[in-house]
Amino acid sequence: MIRAGVNSPAMLVLLASVVIGLIMVLVFGYASDQKAIHQTKDRLKAHLLALRLFQDQIPVVIRCYGRILLAITRYLRLALWPLLLTALPLALVIAQLDRYLGSAPLKAGQTFLVKARVSDPEILSETSLQLPNGLTTSAPAVHVPAENTVIWRVAAETDGDYNVKVQTSSQAFSKRVVVAPGLPRLSPVRLRGPFWERIFVSGEPALPKNSAVQSIEVEYPSRSIAFAGFAWNWVWLLFVLSLVAGFAFKSILGIEI
């Protein structure tokens, strides 16, 4: 759990944006051909200027458009590898930050849904939910055979870090539920799926491959972050602030982008 120091979602996003913007600019500068990018951008500017100066001369305009297209193609080719080099690490960082910022933790007194998806609709009636002290069901279970899903509505009585268990006829599987203030690390779903699916959407160990339960999901509230007078989805706020930080560091470090 993130505690003293950075307990504000907006401050955490701002800090992450500055770090990500700096790292992306440094990686781009190291991995790219800075001289070639500088030359390509200069040529592009020259062709754009020629387009304005000779706009009444059709043959010159056509040649300028062709050279502009070639310059843009060359620039994209020069920038592609550095961008790809930063894309995967950035996606992994965003996936980890989403554990803290994507959803808000539950509050004491709040109701929420627990959903279990099973592999065989015939065992839906045999599937039950076991709750620890501090959590109670507030309505009967709802079975959705078309989706192989059973849904429980649960009430959180007190703060705590809980483990609920979904029980089938012969197996039981746990799922973490967090009822707490601040910015705890959350995992909305526990999956039986492949590694690359779990790494982006789940922060818990995989369910066994042969288990009757395919997934267990806790419906946490979505989080919006107040910044500059607007309510933001944290990914969009990170994107905007990272761009601002990146262009600032680009100018400071003299890196061509």
Number of domains: 2
The global form is elongated
Low-confidence stretches: 1-6
Q: Provide mean pLDDT, rounded.
A: 90
Radius of gyration: 26 Å
Order of helices and strands: HHHEEEEEEEEHEEEH
Question: What fraction strand?
Answer: 15-25%
Question: Could you give the distance between the termini?
Answer: 37 Å
Give a topology summary.
Blueprint: H1 9-31, H2 34-53, H3 58-101, E1 111-118, E2 128-130, E3 135-137, E4 142-144, E5 149-156, E6 160-167, E7 172-179, E8 189-191, H4 195-201, E9 213-218, E10 225-227, E11 230-232, H5 234-253
Antiparallel strand pairs: 1-5, 1-9, 2-6, 3-5, 4-5, 6-7, 8-9, 10-11
Helix pairs in contact: 1-3, 1-5, 2-3
Description:
By secondary structure, the chain is α+β, with helices and mostly antiparallel strands. The chain folds into two domains: 9-102 and 229-253, no CATH class; 111-218, Immunoglobulin-like (Sandwich), CATH 2.60.40. It contains five helices and eleven strands; from the N terminus they run αααββββββββαβββα. The chain has helices spanning 9-31, 34-53, 58-101, 195-201, 234-253, and strands at 111-118, 128-130, 135-137, 142-144, 149-156, 160-167, 172-179, 189-191, 213-218, 225-227, 230-232. Strands 1, 3, 4, 5, 8 and 9 form a six-stranded antiparallel sheet that branches. The chain has a three-stranded antiparallel sheet with strand order 2-6-7, with no helix packed on it. Strand 6 and strand 7 (172-179) form a beta hairpin. Helix 1 (9-31) crosses helix 3, helix 1 packs across helix 5 and helix 2 packs across helix 3 (58-101). The longest helix is centred in the N-terminal third of the chain and has 44 residues, at 58-101. It is elongated. The two termini are 37 Å apart. 23% of the residues are buried.
